[in-house]
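Record format v2
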Amino acid sequence: MGPDPRPQPRVTTLAAAADDFGHLVHQTPNAVLLPASAHDVAAAVRRAAGQGRRFAAQGRRHSVFGRAQARDGVVADMGRLRTLHAVQRDRVVVDAGATWREVVAATLPHGRTPPVLTDYLDLSVGGTLAVGGVGSATSRLGVMSDHVLELEVVTGQGEQVICSPDRHPNLFDAVRAGLGQVGVITRATLPLVPAPRLVRRFLLFYPDLATMLGDQRLLVHEPRFEGVQGAVLATPTGGWTFRLDLTTPFTGDPPDDPALLAGLSDDRPKAQPSMLPYLDHLNRFTVLERFLRSNGQWWFPHPWLTTFVGDASVESVVDSELADLPPADLGPLGQVVLSPVLRESVRSPLLRLPPDPVCYTFNLFRLPATDEAGEARRLVMANRAVYERVRDVAGTLYPVSAFPMSRDDWRRHFGAAFDRLSEAKHDHDPGHVLTPGYELF
Ligand SMILES: Cc1cc2nc3c(=O)[nH]c(=O)nc-3n(C[C@H](O)[C@H](O)[C@H](O)COP(=O)(O)OP(=O)(O)OC[C@H]3O[C@@H](n4cnc5c(N)ncnc54)[C@H](O)[C@@H]3O)c2cc1C
């Protein structure tokens, strides 16, 4: 069982709206609204624009660097906009404030599921589609914003517009992974696929990075595992160990284990196979969440860094970053996430990836054992330095990261796609009302 999926009454204070999961940036808004409809959102955007204020939608406030905040502006807590509309065989229509937990609670009884889900289900649909959405199936199936049929959005001019690949495609492409710069998502139509009953899972261990990367390169090109996720973990003796978490969902006969593992170079005696219900697989973050809540670390600062590195440089970059990374900077429960992504599977134009056909998430999932503010600031600056080294080898940012970015940084980040975003901003949010937290325009 994960957290209670039933809608909870919501009260958002100015102080809560000036905080997020990172607990690193605090911008107090002038007002917090609880819109109950897209119409309310549209009216609120128009009112904010008329008052010369900025406007930010807040989903579950799991941003880590104030990206959902608006100093002196208007913040909309999207939590009341969480209706799950009709579940059909191939699609579901959901209001953007719903969480993925609520989405799967509605679709699984129909034997259906979204094809890609984040590793953590308590994120809002709108907040996730605004950044992309990376999950265990991303390696071969892309990000969650690639799996959207239609969006209802409110633009920075307070207009309600339906967009899709066929209707207002430029707006559709600027909203998906567009960091909330041109529209607030109020409703999404998401594709559904048959939900598996069970998941076969293997944790495989590797003595070194090169061997793990070799298996990732092999697996990302083959359909044997849907989920291919790598992690680098600190060992008690001060070194690093390398782990692949491989998952294959199924419904009828279990898959053939020897065929799944054929040709892999892991330390086989250490392999940990398991079989789990699909929902338990989706809930895999819950154990860590419970622990972090129970010892208070959930409320500590979270200076996370999330990037993508291309195949050509991944080994040298990760090797040298690990050489300089004190395990204490990750925290005892932290880890480096290193998972392959087939570039061609990602179709959201604003999700920036390195040019290599295979890329890797390279994330410092820091869970510091202290809430000391100076230490958090030091790690934010360390993030910036790592990002610059990643960028020097054509790596890119997954913008769920804790460190400041200047307008020039963002321009460089979006590269050839910046003009497209800029044009969409000009067309749909010319007054620069929406989502100031990225400091992008
Ligand atoms: C514990 C934890 C686990 C996570 N796991 C994953 C993971 O597995 N994969 C992954 O990709 N990410 C993951 N993340 C990061 C997460 O996807 C992003 O932080 C996401 O933006 C958070 O969603 P949210 O609903 O909390 O959004 P918020 O933090 O509320 O908002 C995020 C951004 O989106 C904007 N926004 C919010 N709602 C809307 C809307 N309706 N329309 C337009 N813009 C909107 C906000 O203004 C803000 O800029 C995780 C974060 C945490 C804290």
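Residues 20-21, 56-63, 67-68, 78, 96, 118-120, 123-124, 126-128, 130-135, 179-180, 184-185, 400, 435, 437 surround flavin-adenine dinucleotide (CB under 6 Å).
Residues 138 and 341 are 6 Å apart (CA to CA).
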